[in-house]
């Protein structure tokens, strides 16, 4: 009977011959290519020369983006390029500069006049105190008295800037009026913030503000405006317009993050991840707009942790450097502000910031003026009819759902003595 055990306890060498040829070759793994953003980084278009004053015939600004087709015409228009050029030029003017780089004593007279106007707006808040709403966290009706007072003073303010034409004063002051929020809905969002920038753009088009003032506009005027808006938001409980924290950056603002990222472009030790360092926020928040916004945003929340309250800010903090952040903010401004119909349908066009040919007019299609529009949703023109469009792709962008602000919740807690600081999520 043959043995089932090999008689040769030592395997022959022939069994190992050419074993390297029989084994599969080891090939290094190929690294997956890094994900590429399909949206190119928007460039800064050249800023056009201001028009000849003799060719300017001002008139009251009106809404002209009343349909998706109107929005497409706007995005292909010179006005779209003008806004991009102005906003990105302001951002570049703040690159690698602290707020203290520009002092008010070195500013031209026009900057001092604008600061004086914003101080007058601040005083108007005191003159129009909020009414007692019995603990309600929705918009306070006294905000309408505040805006009415702004309207009454606006002509004198703009005369101090050197405007003499009543039609020019009327057109330019409309943007300032709309930069504090909506009178009917008592809300505020990135569209109102854009109105403030367009107000400055109009002053640039009228040669009141030269490009040499751009650093002061970003580092002196804009922080003063943001500080003023925080006071207005906390006094009158302005509701966040549209979606609540639509980008997860801030309930109200967007542009401070673009300008602030530009400030930090090549900072020696502050990195995007530094927004989680409370010491850096405290020590550097007064010098850098981005850090100031993070600090104030965190202070307005009742929950500790950016990943719960501002998830987009938390994600952005993982960026490699501030250049990546600044490029991302440019993309977001193009796509999420100028590229969003629910935001831009409220934009106003006049003579200095003209509409494109072929865009609808409010009076032609029977749409109420922006100041009288109660519903915050999207409309579209279908023949001779104007229809409200119900959207199902984004919560809160449709019918102007009323959302109480976290600022209002904090202020009400203060009144009741219930403010115990930030609380942690149990599983954080």
What does this structure look like?
By secondary structure, the chain is mainly α. It has helices spanning 19-22, 68-75, 78-93, 109-127, 142-160, 166-177, 190-205, 214-236, 255-263, 278-284, 289-299, 306-309, 311-316, 322-338, 341-344, 362-365, 406-415, and strands at residues 62-63, 187-188, 239-240, 303-304, 348-349, 378-382, 385-389, 423-424. It has a two-stranded antiparallel ribbon. Helix 4 runs antiparallel to helix 5 and helix 5 packs across helix 6. It is globular, with a radius of gyration of 28 Å. The N and C termini lie far apart (73 Å).
Helices and strands: which structural class? mainly alpha
* Mean pLDDT level: 85
Give the end-to-end Cα distance, rounded to a whole number of Å. 73 Å
Overall geometry comes to: globular
Helical proportion?
40-55%
Order of helices and strands: HEHHHHHEHHEHHHEHHHHEHEEHE
Largest sheet features: 2 strands, antiparallel
Our count of helices gives: 17
How large is the share of residues in beta strands? 5-15%
The residue ranges in which pLDDT falls below 50 over 5 or more consecutive positions are 390-400, 422-428
Helix and strand topology:
Blueprint lengths: L18 H4 L39 E2 L4 H8 L2 H16 L15 H19 L14 H19 L5 H12 L9 E2 L1 H16 L8 H23 L2 E2 L14 H9 L14 H7 L4 H11 L3 E2 L1 H4 L1 H6 L5 H17 L2 H4 L3 E2 L12 H4 L12 E5 L2 E5 L16 H10 L7 E2 L4
Parallel strand pairs: 2-3, 4-8
Antiparallel strand pairs: 1-5, 6-7
Helix pairs in contact: 3-8, 4-5, 4-8, 5-6, 6-7, 9-11, 9-14, 10-11
């Amino acid at each position: 009977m043959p043995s089932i055990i090999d008689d040769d306890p030592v395997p022959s060498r022939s069994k190992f011959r050419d074993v390297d040829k029989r084994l599969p070759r080891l090939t290094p793994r190929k690294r997956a290519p890094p994900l590429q953003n399909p949206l190119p980084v928007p460039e800064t278009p050249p800023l056009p020369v201001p028009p000849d004053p003799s060719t300017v015939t001002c008139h009251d600004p009106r809404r002209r983006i009343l349909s998706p087709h109107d929005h497409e015409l706007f995005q292909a228009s010179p006005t779209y390029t003008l806004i991009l050029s102005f906003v990105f030029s302001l951002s570049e003017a703040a690159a690698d500069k602290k707020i203290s780089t520009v002092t008010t004593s070195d500013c031209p007279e026009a900057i001092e006049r604008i600061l004086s106007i914003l101080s007058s707006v601040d005083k108007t808040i005191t003159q129009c105190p909020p009414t007692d709403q019995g603990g309600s966290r929705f918009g306070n009706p006294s905000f309408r008295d505040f805006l009415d007072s702004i309207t009454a003073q606006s002509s004198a303010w703009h005369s101090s800037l050197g405007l003499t034409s009543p039609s020019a004063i009327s057109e330019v002051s409309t943007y300032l009026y709309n930069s504090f929020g909506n009178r009917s809905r008592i809300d505020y969002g990135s569209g109102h913030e854009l109105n403030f920038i367009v107000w400055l753009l109009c002053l640039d088009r009228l040669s009141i503000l030269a490009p040499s003032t751009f650093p002061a506009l970003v580092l002196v005027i804009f922080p003063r405006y943001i500080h003023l808006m925080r006071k207005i938001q906390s006094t009158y409980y302005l509701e966040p317009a549209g979606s609540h924290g639509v980008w997860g950056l801030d309930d109200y603002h967007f542009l401070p993050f673009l300008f602030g990222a530009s400030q930090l472009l090549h900072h020696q030790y502050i990195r995007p991840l530094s927004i989680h360092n409370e010491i850096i926020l405290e020590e550097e928040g007064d010098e850098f707009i981005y850090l100031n916004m993070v600090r104030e945003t965190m202070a307005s929340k009742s929950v500790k942790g950016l990943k719960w309250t501002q998830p987009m800010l938390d994600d952005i903090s993982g960026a490699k450097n501030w250049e990546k952040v600044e490029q991302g903010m440019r993309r977001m401004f193009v796509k999420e502000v100028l590229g969003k119909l629910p935001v831009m349908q409220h934009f106003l066009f006049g003579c200095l910031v003209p509409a494109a040919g072929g865009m609808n007019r409010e009076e032609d299609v029977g749409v109420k003026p922006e100041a009288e529009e109660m519903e915050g949703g999207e409309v579209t023109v279908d023949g001779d009819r104007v229809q409200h469009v119900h959207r199902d792709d984004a919560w809160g962008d449709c019918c102007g759902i009323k959302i109480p602000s976290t600022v209002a919740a904090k202020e009400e807690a203060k009144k009741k003595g219930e403010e115990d600081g930030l609380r942690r999520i149990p599983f954080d």
